[in-house]
């Protein structure tokens, strides 16, 4: 009976936690350090009710995907400061945004190496698309996801996704709103041939 009570309490506590993307300034880490950073973050926050899922490493920041109670967010950020000073915090919420805003957000996040957030923004756009447009947006999403995998030191998964990027983009028009689709196609082919992922702007 006590065990059931403990489990229920844990479920209740997790229900009150909020999800955030923490961006800490990066001065020394590379994607190869992704797991090491996750373990370090978990150790630093071990005395808190916080969940640290993954670390994605970009050139300028370390992105930590975390859940914590809202009132403990500042405390968590302080505890994680040995990894790097805070640069940006984004509260992850289920929200419906206008298609044009989703495209603008997706481009901004992609061009700033915030690939998980770019994929989320474009997924919102994708839900509002039909036919061929849906395929083009899915190709852009897959490119963002490929880079998000690379930031977790899952380069082979990211490179493997390039084939699907090219399948989805197919022979679509060279522009999607302000996005240069030809550039994405060309970069995907180049990266396949070189067997590496190199960030670029869309």
UniProtKB/TrEMBL annotation:
A Pfam family reported for this protein in Swiss-Prot or TrEMBL? DUF309
| InterPro entries per UniProt | DUF309, TTHA0068_sf
Highest taxon listed in the record's lineage = Archaea
Task: Report the source organism.
Answer: Candidatus Nitrosopumilus koreensis AR1
Q: What is this protein called?
A: DUF309 domain-containing protein
């Amino acid at each position: 009976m006590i065990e059931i009570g403990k489990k229920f309490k844990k479920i209740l506590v997790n229900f009150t936690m909020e999800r955030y993307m923490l961006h800490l300034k990066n001065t020394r880490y590379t994607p190869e350090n992704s797991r090491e950073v996750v373990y370090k973050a978990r150790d630093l926050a071990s005395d808190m009710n916080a969940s640290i899922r993954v670390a994605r490493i970009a050139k300028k920041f370390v992105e930590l995907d975390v859940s914590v109670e809202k009132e403990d967010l500042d405390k968590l950020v302080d505890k994680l400061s040995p990894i790097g000073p805070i640069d940006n915090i984004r509260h992850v919420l289920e929200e419906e945004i206008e298609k044009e805003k989703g495209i603008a957000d997706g481009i901004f996040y992609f061009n700033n190496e915030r690939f998980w957030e770019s994929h989320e923004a474009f997924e919102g756009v994708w839900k509002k698309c039909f036919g061929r447009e849906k395929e083009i947006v899915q190709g852009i999403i897959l490119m963002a996801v490929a880079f998000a995998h690379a930031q977790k030191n899952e380069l082979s998964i990211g490179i493997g996704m390039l084939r699907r990027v090219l399948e989805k983009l197919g022979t679509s028009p060279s522009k999607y709103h302000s996005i240069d689709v030809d550039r994405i196609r060309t970069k995907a082919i180049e990266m396949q041939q070189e067997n590496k992922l190199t960030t670029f702007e869309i």
